[in-house]
Amino acid sequence: MNVPADIASEGPVFGRESAGYDDEVAAYQLGFGQRPDVVVGATGPDDVRAAVRLAAGRGLPLAVQSTGHGLPGDRAGGVLVTTARMRGVEVDPGTGIARIQAGTPWGDVIREAALHGLAPLSGSTLGVGAIGYTVEGGIGLLARTYGFAADRITAAEMVTADGELRHVTAESDPDLFWALRGAGGNFGVVTSLDVELVRQPRIYGGGLYFAEQYVTDALRTWLEWTADVGEEMTSSIGLVPFPDKPVVPVPVRGRYTAHIRIAHTGSTAEGEAAVAPLRALGPCVLDTLTDMPYTESDAIYRDPPTPMAYYGTNVLLDDLDVATAARIVELTGPGSGLNCVVQISHLGGAMARRPAAPSSVGHRDARFLVRVLSRVAPGAGDAVAAAERAGHERVYALFGDRVTGIAPNFLLGGPVTAEQLRACYDEADYERLAALKAVYDPGNLFRSYHNIPPADAR
Ligand SMILES: Cc1cc2nc3c(=O)[nH]c(=O)nc-3n(C[C@H](O)[C@H](O)[C@H](O)COP(=O)(O)OP(=O)(O)OC[C@H]3O[C@@H](n4cnc5c(N)ncnc54)[C@H](O)[C@@H]3O)c2cc1C
């Protein structure tokens, strides 16, 4: 398809042959490719409307990309709206609400919020886009204290499939507002999002790293410890074969390590007391726990800031016992033949409570999230990812009927199946989302990411 001459976009428009096309479609995720027919480098809501109308008029799918952390497998054809030019955040210190533009990464929001002693419910890394993360739930560093990020959305400006720009709130459009808070990418392109911040300028946090011979002990101790910790404590454990690269701290470089990640919203003394049993479990090769401003919170996970190739799946569990957890190490540790990172996050606390205005986030009752992340070769594509999935499924088979569902945010790379998508939501909510999709996007224009097909089309 040629670049249409009449598209009313202030921002640049690219066809496959245009100079700059490859840079415009480049994503953080390197494992998969995308070759849209047309890319609209949106500068504001009018450009987004023009792109939506173009796609709808030609019966093409419309995809959105902010940072490309969530590129969902190989993507071909259609119209892509890139939002990197729509970057900005304004904080109202009176209400504690941040208005976040479509292409804003968390790092910008964290910096702006900190000027007012506030923090967003962001995740492990600064580079992830705030909108993509939030509209699918958003399980952040402080999730057990403050809940899912999606529950803090108070309003959105979004362009729906009919090409209209809507101001969506709980009062104006209760159904769309509910759907947006958990399944947002299926219902439109958000041009700006209002989210409630929290008064948490500092935290006690960081990582405890245990060498290979202590990995199983660390996992057992962490798991038992989660049974009694308060809601101020959000934590996870990573079973990580650290690469032998200069960016990795020397004590863990090239080594299989248990990495316990801590974010505590109480005082430093309370945080220190809470982690004492973990520190006592064996010699730490690296201990980075400290009082820190929230602006430094990406030091907890130390996710790589540079683009990578990865394929990640997950399951939510209602419980996890020590014996089963030990089997995870056998199945994924050195010598297992599976080259992957496993992460187990402790859920519950505020995440388990329903917000005053309901949202479509699923499986609030889950106590643990188990993620398996495989490094894949750049450009590996859907076929390689599908083969990796067999290894992931061997891990999940350990959990039997303890599995309650899947967290959509952590379906990273593709292909994502209809069955996986359905498992992201509570059963009745999935049916309601599909019915709403038939109302707001009957032609399934927004089908390029974690798609919930309209009820009529199934
Ligand atoms: C290194 C890394 C760390 C992560 N850490 C966390 C974490 O701590 N907690 C967590 O919950 N998740 C985490 N994630 C997952 C992340 O939240 C999702 O991948 C999310 O989709 C990324 O959003 P993005 O905008 O950065 O990516 P993109 O690939 O640009 O967007 C992904 C999708 O989000 C939707 N989207 C983006 N912008 C808009 C918009 N303006 N309107 C409507 N839909 C939009 C679209 O459907 C798009 O396809 C992490 C992912 C990575 C790779």
From TrEMBL:
InterPro entries the UniProt entry points to: BBE (IPR012951), FAD-bd_PCMH (IPR016166), FAD-bd_PCMH-like_sf (IPR036318), FAD-bd_PCMH_sub1 (IPR016167), FAD-bd_PCMH_sub2 (IPR016169), FAD-linked_Oxidoreductase (IPR050416), Oxid_FAD_bind_N (IPR006094), Oxy_OxRdtase_FAD_BS (IPR006093)
Q: Where is the FAD-binding PCMH-type domain?
A: 32-200
Q: Which Pfam families match?
A: BBE, FAD_binding_4
Top-level taxon in the UniProt lineage: Bacteria
Alphabetically list the UniProt keywords.
Answer: FAD, Flavoprotein, Oxidoreductase
The protein's required cofactors: FAD
**Which PANTHER family does the protein's record reference?**
BINDING OXIDOREDUCTASE, PUTATIVE (AFU_ORTHOLOGUE AFUA_1G17690)-RELATED, FAD-BINDING PCMH-TYPE DOMAIN-CONTAINING PROTEIN
In which family does this protein belong, per the annotation?
Belongs to the oxygen-dependent FAD-linked oxidoreductase family.
Record-given protein name: FAD-binding oxidoreductase
| Annotated source species | Streptomyces melanogenes
